[in-house]
Amino acid sequence: MPTGDLVSQLLALFAVLGVGVLLRAAGRAGQTDAAALHRLVIDVTTPALVITVLRRAGIGAGAWGAVAASTVALFACAFAGVAVARALGLPRAAQGAAGLVGSFSNTGFLGVPVVLALYGDAGGAAGTAILIDTIVTMVMLWTFGVALAARMGTGGAVDARSLLQLLRQPAVASIAIGLALHALPIPLPTWVERALDALGSATPTLVFLALGLSLDLRSLHGRVRPLVAFAAVKLLVSPAVAFGAALALGLERTTAEVAVLQSAMPTSMVSVIVAARYGCDGQLAAGTAVVTTLGAVLSLPIVLEVVRRLLG
């Protein structure tokens, strides 16, 4: 799909985000409504989307190479974020926040819908994006990410709750269901398919509406320099490292593009929650999420165009 189509897709989604911002500014909705939408996305629409995609496309053999490339980018940018914060003279709690928000991408709420819109089921792209979200974002966040936040923050030691929280995520069950339906395969009644399609297709709209309702520009005040630095790590360094890893692994074109796109997504909103929960600088993490989310509308089309030109 041409890069211009990505721009069109992103502009449409950010227009929805703008509706959320206007509703918040007008006092018609706010953080409470955003939280309700997030729960709906996590518990209902995203699992429906995952089941639909995996049932139809499965996960291609090359997907594990994309996971490896994205994992390399995650670790590299976690350490880069900490190093940048340290170079700026920021305290340890801010360094921990920088490591989290510089590495963990919004691969589920934003990455999977964008990849699905760009590639559909072609080449197993959507299945690859889901696998990256599951392993590189979800599993790594609740293990490596929590350990990093606990070590750098003041939240104490890591306990078993983080792993239990991971296992309780509806997305985990939806992945197993989707793969089972693909492998067997099990026919579904037409009305069930239509219901899953309707719920899954609502995910991007609900996600961006919730983002608009939750954006707090006050979190940017007085921290422009570190926020710009962390955003550069997340939006530019992360996809660059993923691209290098994809080349080294010899990934085929579509798989490489998906790996780079997932690594180029803005900061994961859940990483902001983890940063605050374990005593890192939650305000700095939230500010980075705002900057990277707004910046992605410019950076994602550029990243995709550069990658496609380099891949020939």
UniProtKB/TrEMBL annotation:
<feature type="transmembrane region" description="Helical">
    <location>
        <begin position="198"/>
        <end position="215"/>
    </location>
</feature>
<keyword id="KW-1003">Cell membrane</keyword>
<feature type="transmembrane region" description="Helical">
    <location>
        <begin position="6"/>
        <end position="25"/>
    </location>
</feature>
<dbReference type="GO" id="GO:0005886">
    <property type="term" value="C:plasma membrane"/>
</dbReference>
<comment type="similarity">
    <text>Belongs to the auxin efflux carrier (TC 2.A.69) family.</text>
</comment>
<keyword id="KW-0813">Transport</keyword>
<dbReference type="Pfam" id="PF03547">
    <property type="entry name" value="Mem_trans"/>
</dbReference>
<keyword id="KW-0812">Transmembrane</keyword>
<feature type="transmembrane region" description="Helical">
    <location>
        <begin position="284"/>
        <end position="307"/>
    </location>
</feature>
<keyword id="KW-1133">Transmembrane helix</keyword>
<feature type="transmembrane region" description="Helical">
    <location>
        <begin position="227"/>
        <end position="251"/>
    </location>
</feature>
<dbReference type="InterPro" id="IPR038770">
    <property type="entry name" value="Na+/solute_symporter_sf"/>
</dbReference>
<feature type="transmembrane region" description="Helical">
    <location>
        <begin position="63"/>
        <end position="85"/>
    </location>
</feature>
<keyword id="KW-0472">Membrane</keyword>
<feature type="transmembrane region" description="Helical">
    <location>
        <begin position="97"/>
        <end position="119"/>
    </location>
</feature>
<feature type="transmembrane region" description="Helical">
    <location>
        <begin position="37"/>
        <end position="57"/>
    </location>
</feature>
<dbReference type="GO" id="GO:0055085">
    <property type="term" value="P:transmembrane transport"/>
</dbReference>
<feature type="transmembrane region" description="Helical">
    <location>
        <begin position="171"/>
        <end position="192"/>
    </location>
</feature>
<protein>
    <recommendedName>
        <fullName>Transporter</fullName>
    </recommendedName>
</protein>
<dbReference type="InterPro" id="IPR004776">
    <property type="entry name" value="Mem_transp_PIN-like"/>
</dbReference>
<feature type="transmembrane region" description="Helical">
    <location>
        <begin position="125"/>
        <end position="150"/>
    </location>
</feature>
